[in-house]
Amino acid sequence: MPISLTDKLVVAISSRALFDFEKEDELFNQMGSTVYIQHQLSHMSEAASQGVAYPLIQKLLRFNTSDAHRVEVVILSRNDPVSGLRVFHTANTLGLKLERGVFTQGRSPFRYLVPLGAKLFLSANGDDVRHALTTGFAAARVYPKSVKAAEHYPDEIRIAFDGDAVLFSDESERVYKEHGLDAFQSHEQRNVHLPMPPGPFLPFLKALHSLQQAAGQGVQVKIRTSLVTARSAPAHERAIRTLMNWGIVVDEAMFLGGLDKGPFLQEFEPDFFFDDQTGHCESAAKVGPTGHVIHGIANTLKEVV
């Protein structure tokens, strides 16, 4: 009988999101694949440094115990199989237990999210992230040079989510973009008791809650979540009511009314923050690991690099 991952939280992640391969990526862009592969081969025994998503993955894997395997992390990479050997060597050297990987040598790997049943896909490649989101997966383009700031909470996974176009659909954000703030506030007040449609990251948030409940008291690491949104009163109420309707509880909620999110995230110190707008992502990346959710009207009004 084949092994199944259906009862696990599956995270698919690119090698550049998990490890620091930025110099290698620059070499590939400048010199091409042949030189790149030779470089990886010649440095096979040399472990790479931790990447932006490493602290998050390291903590999630702590939910696996001798009694239960709850989290599966799979490398899903455009790398070639030879470079894949270095990826696994790095994981082994850093003490990260990884067993599965898909290496497609330049081809987009996002289509393998379906057989994996992934709840989250993290990649430095924007095209792969767009395709994954279109297919219905929670996905984000990581900022590889984000500040890594997870040291203060070694036994707590802290994840912050934007609201519209991330946890919620972009339905309300479209009203704001097309008609302005007053129309947005009126729309939210009229529909305050009507739950918003779900956004791409709701399944991942639900999976985190299920993971925490399944682990119970036997696992030392805990999960703390935060909603960090540009909404302000009175539009805050619909957001909270929507989460209540879904049976979801977040530990913190920040209704910032357009304030810069960076300083607030600096205080929360997330292992990862997800937002659909590049301005918020660029601010957040200065203080902690950040992923751009390339989804919704904010990412169709102009081309996103």
What does it look like?
By secondary structure, the protein is α/β, with parallel strands linked by helices. The protein has two domains: 9-142, HAD superfamily/HAD-like (Rossmann fold), CATH 3.40.50.1000; 156-299, 3-Layer(aba) Sandwich (Rossmann fold). Helices cover 38% and strands 17% of the residues. It has 13 helices and twelve strands. It has helices at residues 15-18, 22-31, 33-42, 54-60, 81-93, 113-116, 126-135, 171-179, 181-190, 202-215, 236-246, 262-268, 278-285; strands at 9-13, 19-20, 49-50, 71-77, 100-103, 120-123, 139-142, 156-161, 222-229, 252-255, 272-275, 290-292. The strands form two sheets. It has a ten-stranded mixed beta sheet. Strand 11, helix 13 and strand 12 form a beta-alpha-beta unit. Helix 2 packs antiparallel against helix 3 (33-42) and helix 12 packs across helix 13. The longest helix is centred in the C-terminal third of the chain and has 14 residues, at 202-215. The chain is globular, with a radius of gyration of 19 Å. The mean pLDDT is 91.
- N- and C-termini, Cα separation: 44 Å
Mean pLDDT: 91
Strand count, sense and barrel status of the largest sheet are: 10 strands, mixed
Q: Strands of the largest sheet, in order across it?
A: 5-4-1-6-7-12-11-8-9-10
Please name the fourth-level CATH homologous superfamily of the largest domain: HAD superfamily/HAD-like
Q: Topology as H/E string?
A: EHEHHEHEHEHEHEEHHHEHEHEHE
What structural category arises from helix and sheet content?
A: alpha/beta
Estimate the global geometry from the Cα principal axes: globular
* Percent in strands: 15-25%
Integer-rounded radius of gyration: 19 Å
Helical percentage = 25-40%
